[in-house]
Amino acid sequence: MRLWLLRHGEAEARANTDAERELTRHGRKDVLHSAAQLAGRPLGAILASPYVRAQQTAELVRDALGFTGAIGAAPWATPDSDPRQALDFLAEHGEQDLLLVTHNPFVSELAGLLIHGHRQDPLPMGTASLAELEGDLLIPGLVSLRSLHHVRHH
Fold first, then answer.
1. Which residues pair with 23 in a beta bridge?
2. Which of 45, 32, 36, 35 is nearest to 2 (CA)?
3. Residue 28: helix, strand or coil by DSSP?
4. What range defines the domain where residue 125 resides?
5. C-alpha dihedral over 23, 26, 29, 34, to 10 degrees?
6. Beta strands in the chain (DSSP E)
7. Is 154 a member of any domain?
8. Structural domains in the chain (count)
9. Nearest CA to 79 among 98, 52, 106, 99?
10. What pLDDT is attached to residue 94?
11. Which of 115, 154, 152, 137 is nearest to 5 (CA)?
12. Residue 130 counted as domain residue
């Protein structure tokens, strides 16, 4: 199974709530840059946090790739969610290639948990960073980091 983890693009500093923060123009550009890394990859599903910036990021990727499926809901993937709760959902998800669009610190902790088997060594993920993880099953400590793409900020 291949799991792609994408942190949302740069978002506005302020909104009524954290969940309502929208992507900036720069953030949209960075997301499209990361989406290009997924071109030609067979995605079975795209899941995203319910927060606006993650939904916008997922929509940009879906459009850029010509993905025809709906964006699945991942209410367990908000910034302060427990990555262990995500494991149950991901384990039940049958797709071989899955993209999850989410936030820090959740995304860094989830990647670290899957790769190392614990949360003490989170994977550094900047805005619009894309990690490619692979494993027969998504079991902590049994997943390999295949690639990590960071957007260069100019």
1. 11
2. 45
3. helix
4. 2-149
5. -80
6. 2-7, 45-48, 71-73, 97-102, 130-134, 144-149
7. no
8. 1
9. 106
10. 60
11. 115
12. yes
